Amino acid sequence: MVCLRQVAPYNEWGSTTLKSMLDGDDGGAGILLTLDVTASKSVIEKAAASLNIKPEPMDISEDVSQQNAVHRQPSNAMSPAEVWSAVLSSNFDTASKSCLMTLLKIIDNILSRSDPKVRCIRYGNPNFQSKVASCKGALEFLYSLGFVSTYAVFGNMSEPESLELKNESRQVLLRGREVLILSAKKDFGVEDDDLPKMPMAPVISTSTALKTPAANTAANSSRTQEFNIYKGHSTNIAAQQAGAPDPYADKSLSTTERALQNLETKKRNMEKQLQSSVEVDRCLIAYLPGDGPVTGSSSAVAQESKGDSSLLAGRMKRMEEERRKREEGGFTTKAMRDLERMKKAKVYSHAQIRINFPDGSHLHARFLPTETISTVYDIVRSSFETNCQSDFELYVAPPRRLLTDTKTLEDEGLVPAAKIHVSWKSNLGDLTIGGFLRKELFNVNSNAKNISIFPESKPIMLDKKAPPSNASSTVGNDDGQSKEEQLMARMMGKGLLGGKKKSTGNAGNAGDIGDKKGKPKWFK
Q1: Quick count: other Cβ atoms within 10 Å of Cβ 135?
Q2: What DSSP state is assigned to residue 455?
Q3: What is the DSSP secondary-structure string of 370-425?
């Protein structure tokens, strides 16, 4: 039987021969012509008359999926336990045991994998033929699990082409597996160690999802989720199969992100210890122009004594070092940069803020680094007299930049200390200097004014390479030379490079070792 698949247009039927369409075959073995037309019945009769054949209607199902294959299911539905008992009574023990182990592998593959390939068994497979198909009643056991035999339209209709799992149910598969496990222990004496372990449920992904409504819904929902390329997506499959907890359960954090998380937790704990009394005592003090606290920090005095040129040179040097680090540092992620910044950061007990008013008077107050600018607004308003309430803005300069209410002091760069300026939105009228501030803020006792206002700081990570504070870096070196210079001096005759030689007990022999510059006579 030859199935003619070549298409011949209607206007070429008069000149087209079967021999030309069959590449030289005259069609003596018989030809099946399939006409795919949607016209009236007269068109089909006219085409049949031109070929001198009598058309006969075929019984074609309306379901397209049934045109290419024929499915056969068992007439009487039986449970897996009933079918397996019939298999044991109809076959020898050796064949039944081999069939049992093969069926267990088929069920475990379906339970543990979402691949459609494991749900379709080719009937002509040699292993399947020798172990399952040859065992009487084994196919009926697969039918009880939801398998259906598929037969080709053209071919051997006595044997199925494949077995497909059309009606999948995990409960039915587990029930069939339990029947096989009990039979293996009871009927064949198989030990537990020789039986396969219970498989884990498969992890459904978009690439291996089953073509079922539930699987498609899960796949579509996973596609809609936003994928972050900067975040690790690790899954420990071995731990899932063994039933152990997933070490990446915390949203797959990387090592750098975990270290950053630990430092942030440590920072919060240190802030609780240092900043416990700030909200209770703001140390709100008002000063007139020319008056104010005197800081006892020698480093601050040294900074103020420097000129603009030295400060500018120091800033340019720091900027150049930062630029060189960025160029030579290579590729770094945001988590790596945040971790490096957190290692160098410090935790301050409070942020000391000086609020300068246009008339020269100013307020001093303490705030938490995590407090917002709106809190600063509230404290400034609370310091005004009741009859002098007016709208204002807070800004820093230079350059002039307004502060955002929702940002924290740490976000605005006001930690550990900063100066904030007040800009009035309306005229206050004729008031004395500082007359808009409450009088009791100026009458603070001298002891409170003399308290050190600079915040206390602690590093988040202690620098292990830094020497202790009580140790001198120039031990045994009165001239302040480095270790390299001392080593070079010893190599060149124990003289100090570019400096004085240490006095020895024999001054006359000192000149024999080296000259006044610390170089030996033999050194070229």
Answers
A1: 21
A2: P
A3: TSBHHHHHHHHHHTB-GGG---EEEEETTTTEEPPTTSBTTTTT--SEEEEEEEES
φ, ψ (nearest 5 deg) of residue 254: -80, 175
Under 8 Å between Cβ of 51 and 16: no
- Return the pLDDT at 380: 92
**pLDDT tens, residue by residue, 272-303:** 888 776 666 788 899 999 887 754 444 444 45
Overall average pLDDT of the 118-126 stretch: 90
**Can you tell me whether residue 351 is helix, strand or coil?**
strand
The predicted-structure confidence for 378-421, as pLDDT tens digits, reads as follows 999 999 988 787 889 999 988 899 999 999 999 999 998 999 99
Say how far apart CA 123 and CA 160 lie, in whole Å: 7
Contact yes or no for 193/184 (Cβ under 8 A): no
Q: Is the pLDDT of residue 136 over 80?
A: yes
Q: In one letter, which amino acid is 93?
A: D
Q: Are 261 and 251 in contact (CB under 8 A)?
A: no
- Distance set, CA 412 to CA 341, 370, 372, 422, 445 (Å): 17, 11, 9, 16, 32
Please list, residue by residue across 358-384, b when 16 or more beta carbons sit within 10 angstroms of its beta carbon and e when fewer do.
ebebbbbbbbbbebbbebbeebbeebe
Q: Are 151 and 157 in contact (CB under 8 A)?
A: yes
Interatomic CA distance for residues 407 and 375, integer angstroms: 10
- Write out pLDDT tens, residues 11-31: 677 777 766 666 655 545 455
